[in-house]
Amino acid sequence: MSLTRRALLGKSTGLAALATLLGRDGLAKQPGLSSFPNFAPKAKRVIYLFQSGGPSQLELFDYKPRLTEFQGQDLPDSVRGTQRLTGMSSSQTNFPVVPSKFAFQQRGQSGAWVSDLMPYTAKVADRLTFLKTVNTEEINHDPAVTMLQTGFRLGGRPSMGAWVSYGLGCETDDLPAFVVMISNSGGGQPLYDRLWGSGFLPSRYQGVKFRAGADPVLYLSNPQGFSTENRRSYLDSLSELNQITAGEFGDPETSARIAQYEMAFRMQKSVPELTDVKSEPEHTFELYGEDARKPGTFAANCLLARRLAERGVRFIQLYHRDWDHHGGLPAGLPKRCKDVDRASAALISDLTQRGMLEDTLVVWGGEFGRTVYCQGRLTATDYGRDHHGRCFTVWMAGGGIKPGLSYGETDDYGYNIVKDPVHVHDLQATILHCLGIQHDKLTYRFQGRDFRLTDVEGNVVKAILS
Amino acid sequence: MATCRFLLLIFALSAAASAQPVDFNRRIRPILSDKCFTCHGPDSGKRKTALRFDQEKSAKSALANGKFAIVAGHPEQSELITRVTTANKALRMPPAYMGKDALSAAEIALLRRWVEQGAEWKPFWSFIPPVRPEVPAGQNAIDYFIQSRLAREGLRGSPEADRATLLRRVSFDITGLPPTLAELDAFLRDESPNAYEKAVDRLLASPAYGERMAFRWMEAARYGDTNGYQTDGGRDMWRWRDWVLQAFNRNMPYDQFVREQLAGDLLPNATLEQKIATGFNRNHRTNGEGGIIAEEYRVEYVADRAQTTATVFLGLTAGCARCHDHKYDPISQKEFYQLFAYFNQIPNEQGFAWNHGNEDPNVKAPLPEQSTRLTALDEILKRAEEHWKKVSGAAEKPVAEDWTVTHDLVFQKAEEIQKPFEQKDGNIADFGYMQPCTYSVWVKPEALDGGVLSHSDDFYDGNGHGIYLDGGKVRFHLIHRFSDLGIRLKTTQAVIKKGVWQHIAVTYDGRRKAAGIHIYVDGVLQENDVEFDQNNEPLNVKGRPIRLGAAGGRLYNGALRDARIYKAALTPLEVQALLPAGSKARAELALRERGPQELRDAWAALVQAQAERDKYYASIPSVMVMADGAGRATYLLKRGAYDVPGEKVEAGVPAVLGAVDPAWPKNRLGLAQWMTSRRNPLLARVMVNRVWQSIFGTGLVKTAEDFGSQGEWPVHPEVLDWLAVDFMDSGWDLKAVVKKIVMSSTYRQSSRVTPELLQKDPENRLLARGSRYRLGPEMIRDQALAVSGLLVQKVGGPSVKPYQPPGLWQELAGGGGYVVDKGEGLYRRSLYTYWKRTAPPPYMVNFDSPNREVCTVAEGRTNSPLQSLNLMNDVAFLEASRKFAERVLTDGGGSMEYAYRLATGRLLDEARKRVLERALQSFRATYTNDRKAAASYLAQGDSPVNPALDAGEFATWTAVSNLLLNSDEVITKQ
Q1: Which of A273, B129, B211, B339 lies 20 to 30 Å from B225, alpha-carbon distance?
Q2: Could you list the residue range(s) of the whole structural domain that residue A450 is in?
Q3: Sign of CA pseudo-dihedral A137, A188, A452, A311
């Protein structure tokens, strides 16, 4: 077909060389480590719907009816305990309890409590499992997000997607194993490249950011005035040239480079196809909402997430920002819910209809929750909540997870855990488990130590496994 | 995995080894370290029994059950062997629950043989000071050792690379740039026997050498142009970067280079340059996220300094001992905190750091030309002051009782009031947190508490400025967020009395700190108690009123008059002039405005001179530096946590590395003296290894970051030690190290490899051939700029912002985003590219640059399709391709030979020529017919498109040039 193949197959290199070439990095289907998965995986891929800023569990999923009794009262010292507070509220002279302004109802067969702010999520509640006792030591955004995404509070370690891509490799030969999409929410706390970085793992495991706009992947498009035909003939020549070099120097890297350019070419074709949702039928948009037609929205990214999952992308990480409601929560929170509720639920329904939910793990949640006490001024109509790492809710669904559960319990204030804590490292261990990875086996030697996503901790939450 | 590969290598290299003695350090310790040390090693917290395998005495002592782990000569009596081989899973070591794999048959065989041979123990190699190994007279040491090793392996070295390839290789290795055609021609023409050496000397003398060396040093020193956490604001550390590259270029002895970076500020009569050098230890990230606990991050910064120092200078993973004793190396947790103690002495160090510039301590770091200009401006100012003094001293002071300070007066309410007054539109006083200002008011209170004058929220813990009475004390607030951002202070004395008119003035110098706030009562400067002093963020009080008799929701009780707000910090003399007793001050100040013309001119000249000097001073870069003198006690921190101190520790170095001379000071200077002394076994080894790594792609110790027990045994230990000792003996002459390496025959070998050799030594650790590997990101881009003629070879200066796809900063953090430079900023060498840590330059990341969040000394190299897309479609490379084509068409007469040689340094062969000519014809077929496509393909980048060239032909050659810049040969050093 192409000169590349001709050059490869026609000369002394032959099929054996092609096989070698395809066994190296830069290649087509990036392999994982031979010992992974460690056991039969329930999930082949993950879609992580990350809600950056710290959505309030008290307004969304952790129903605390008694808070109305405590309204305006100071949070008892016995509840607050000695845990550290952020510098934003630690010097408050009082800590008035504030109940959710939004009503809750029990949903579906499972009877899970979901607030009225999430009507669509409520409808798929039976497919979800709510972990109400996820917890972290971190009380500030940067370390907490970094902890959740990399297993350590300071930058420098590989992200979850990079670990998975390193261990399991890629199922597709024309898309990256790990894709990241950030939706525009109009504001919110910053994100950092390290959250999808490869840390000390080789950089090919880093998440590839798909962006709304003309160039979904950086440098993907050929420049103006340079056609696809030009590119094909360019790559054929490049391949021939490199083939001569391979023959001259005998360096296997040269062959790897040829394959790397071929994959780039395939990406130039496959990515625009993937991001072009015009071919989606009308009922897709009825499901995800009209927002799904607007590139860069959370809804559009959820739809893309499904398309990526269909094409074998291993780890799909979405970010939606601006959940950081220190003040003005009653006005701010509904907007964020409106951004994400319908599309999150649509993704679950869509995956279910396609029979993909059974081998796709979907995770929804932020880096921490919010305090039961009001931060700043409590008025009749307004309140805010500070960061709270002691307990917050994350939901999971799909491959490997028992549906319709509510796991873990918090106290009447939604402030402390009373039963079944799930540390961030436990959450990570559980995600890896669903993918067939024993979390303490997926290690990488760096600076003399075998590092892993779960640092030196992590217990799989067995009770929620299917 | 790494261990596995390592062992395979050992086997590959020692096929006929069974009769040879098993070397403890090379073969046995790595197994013990990896599999046993976790529970039977240096970490006292994890040892479940007394048995240790990191110490000979313990390993060979009787166990509790009377047996012995190791009985020399008797594997069958040695529990070590029994326990790793037993079929009983409950007894087998390492236990399954440790997550460690069982020992392989090969590992067990090695252990058994070692015990059989007498279980000889040796101290760990890297902790013993290096000794220069013997080399036969007249032999090149590097070649001697490497060839001896190759002979033992039954291998032979490769012939020397062809001269063009060699010159390109050595040019990249020394300067990071390819040779120019003129340099290449001169070298090829030079038939003298020392032609190569002359080229090496020329390259070492080039300013590009320092730039090339500085880039890797910046990675090791985690240099960035931003703070690295959350909103990731900017900082200015480029004066430190320039210090580094100049030091390399001047070939500053490496011991001095280290000493000045560690403790330049503590040297006697430290110069500005020596202080700048200490920026090394301020390059760490700093956190300005609202709500953080300051001490948590201050501790993080200190730990980062200790860890970075250990990695960069000692090749040790001391950070592993932060939470517990090191699991593999003899570094106790206490010793980590002893190292930490050296860096724990910055006075008033801010954990909650400023996110909009350089946090304290920092120094103004004028460049030489800036110093000259500043001196000149100071001289002008001095003369203007003298002149003013002269003319005003002689002048008769006018009576000026009606005069008052009116400059920068933005608000005044002169009349007496008894009830609170509110001016709704207070925006006139909506000052930034760095705006100097003055609040002034007369009070006659009935109660000694209440809000006096404010531009703030109307609740006490709100934002804004305001004066309060607080039990008769004067309180001032300047607040972004009450809880954690702002300044709050009050006078130490309760100076305000009921029923008496008293004057309060508060001045703020706009420099973020409580020390810059002065409170005067009746003109007397008060001592203050500072309640809170962390003013890092802009105030946000637009739309608030100016209130008189009220502040922060508190009301004043009594009479007030003549309230004023100035958008300037009044001088003490100006404050005096506001008082009835200030006649003299008024007269003196009025003279400036009301005196004779000569006086007014003299004053105007002084004001202007001051303003010009201040403006110029503000434009001078500063750099964060180290400082000592906090007198802070250091404690071991349990589990590494900032808030769980254990025992108190004194500064010191790990005992295993040799002692600090008691005569040396117990501070960073003492550390620097020890570090650069012969007592330290590691400094020279670690540096020559990194130089080796930067030239061969892999260090003699592959784990450049870890010379400890888990690190790799040096593949050519004699070369490492010979170079290290020679380095020290030469007076730490770094250029000499580089020269010795590149002059060796080992270095000059051809990098062609046969399948047999590739199979035997895939990673080229033995060096039976020259090394061949992909260039680093900075060299790939710099080469494109150089080949195209776009490169601007200006050395040093502020970081620049070359092309970057739009929106990358905004989509992460919102805000203004990246503004691409115009002109030369687009074409400077890549080490000058602005480095935002949370969103680094994408081409750098695509090509494996470390992220600069933490110290990185390892060099990574991978291939990915993103790299291909980057080189094919990034405007930076497209523009370079166009300029490259322009050179081919103008200077090179459209010759493919010229183009190929420009890109590779080599002569074009027939096979490649056929491919390239065919590509040329194919592009020509497109672009001669499609002029529009040609024009748009050419329109990449800011530089003008040469209109004299035929667009079709120009576009054709641009495509070929881009093809060349993407070819394996060009992005590879071979």
Answers
A1: B339
A2: 38-212+295-464
A3: positive
Q: Are B729 and B165 in contact (CB under 8 A)?
A: no
Same domain, B748 and B822: no
Interval B251-274: pLDDT, tens: 999 999 999 999 999 999 999 999
B159 lies in which domain range? Answer: 123-205+691-698+708-771
Instruction: Give the residue from B642, B644, B835, B851 with the most A CB atoms within 10 Å of its CB, the best one to mutate.
Output: B851
Minimal CA separation from A395 to chain B, in Å:
25
For B450, other C-beta atoms within 10 Å of its C-beta total: 21
Candidates A173, A178, A179, A234: best to mutate against B (most CBs of B within 10 A) is A234
List phi, psi (to 5°) of B816: -70, -35
Contacts of B873 in chain A (CB under 8 A): 219-223
CA atoms within 13 A on the CB side of B617: 13
> Which chain A residues are Cβ-neighbours of B911 within 8 angstroms?
244
- B300 close contact with A: CB closer than 8 A: yes
Spatial separation of the C-alpha atoms in residues B887 and B869, rounded to whole Å: 24
| φ and ψ of A314, to 5 deg | -80, -45
Residue B199 lies in a domain: yes
On the 0-12 / 13-18 / 19+ scale of CB atoms within 10 A, A459 is middle
The residue among B539, B569, B594 that closes a domain is B594
Mean pLDDT computed over B623-644: 95
pLDDT at A314 over 60: yes
Q: How confident is the model at residue B123 (pLDDT cuts 50, 70, 90)?
A: confident
A222–B873 C-beta distance less than 8 A:
yes
What are the pLDDT digits (tens) for B502-534?
999 999 999 999 999 999 999 999 999 999 999
Give ipTM to 2 decimals: 0.90
Q: Is A251 within 8 Å of chain B by CB? A: yes
CA dihedral B93, B98, B101, B104 (to 10 degrees): -20
Give me the residue from A33, A92, A208 closest to B483, CB to CB. A92
Phi, psi of A178 (to 5 degrees): -135, 115
CB pair distance less than 8 Å for A156 and B854? yes
Q: Is B935 within 8 Å of chain A by CB?
A: yes
Q: Using CB atoms and an 8 Å cut-off, which of residues 643-702 of chain B contact chain A? A: none
Please provide the average confidence, as pLDDT, over all residues in chain A: 92
CATH number at residue A368: 3.40.720
- Which tokens sit at B838? 């949370």
Alpha carbon of A197: minimum distance to chain B alpha carbons (Å)? 9
Residue A254 lies in a domain: no
Q: Please state the rounded mean pLDDT for residues A264-292.
A: 95
Q: How confident is the model at residue A447 (pLDDT cuts 50, 70, 90)?
A: confident
Q: What is the pTM of this model?
A: 0.92
Of B882, B877, B885, residue with least CA distance to B802: B877
Q: How far is A114 from chain B (nearest CA, A)?
A: 30
Q: By the CB < 8 Å criterion, does A248 face chain B?
A: yes
The per-residue pLDDT for A29 is 59
Q: Directed axis angle between helix B141-152 and helix B717-729, to 10°?
A: 170
pLDDT at residue B232 in the model: 94
Are A440 and B38 in contact by the 8 Å Cβ rule? The answer is no
Among residues B65, B95, B122, the one where a domain terminates is B122
A447·B317 Cβ contact <8 A = yes
Mutate to test the interface with B, among A50, A84, A142 (most CBs of B within 10 A): A142
In a domain, A369, yes or no: yes
Residues B578-614 pLDDT 10s = 999 999 999 999 999 888 999 999 999 999 999 999 9
Q: State how far the Cα of B485 lies from the Cα of B482, in Å rounded to an integer.
A: 6
